[in-house]
Amino acid sequence: MKHDQMRRFLRRLYAGIAAAVLMTGFTSIAAEVDMPETNVKTESFRRDLSGSAGSICGKVLGETKETIEAAHEAYLAQIEERKAEEEAKRLAEAQMASVPVSSADEELLAALIFCEAGNQPYEGQVAVGAVVMNRVRSASYPNTVREVIYQSGQFTPAMTGWLDSVLASGGYTDSARQAAQDALAGGNPVGECLYFSTGGYGMQIGDHYFH
What we know:
Structural class: mainly alpha
Signal peptide: 1-30
Domain Cell wall hydrolase SleB: 120-198
InterPro entries: Cell_wall_hydrolase_SleB (IPR011105), SleB_dom1 (IPR042047)
Strand content: under 5%
GO molecular function, one term: hydrolase activity
Keywords: Hydrolase, Signal
Number of strands: 3
Shape: rod-shaped
């Protein structure tokens, strides 16, 4: 609901409450006040009735207005929170898009995913790719996919030569290739995790623990 719509809604609500409370006030007071005898002037009775009803109406409207204003403030705060979330998401997407990636990087990542998680659920395959991309964006690691994957002592398939064999033969699966594409596009089920292993601690997906 936009601000002008909210204002129109509040005006209608105030008017409806005022009418309802005013009628209730008149009914309640009429029931409690003795009907005027011949020695009570009608005009005086009307003034008393109007003043009492107005007091009740003002009190209820004041309390209702405070409640509605508080709800309105909460609504505006929610809008600001959503704006902040959207801006954070936009910045994250922009950061992902800033990582230079080539088709060779995609194939290399697919091969690594196949070697490390080819027998794991699809989410686990994307998670391995996400770890690589987290490292690319981290100041603690190289800033390219290739350098991260071939960094000394990091990924066993790269150290044993299995990765190069799979890459040369195109032996990775379609699932691994799709997982690589998803990870490169920002798919990330493990947050800021930079490591994974088949034991230890962290978020478990399939046989791997991510931390």
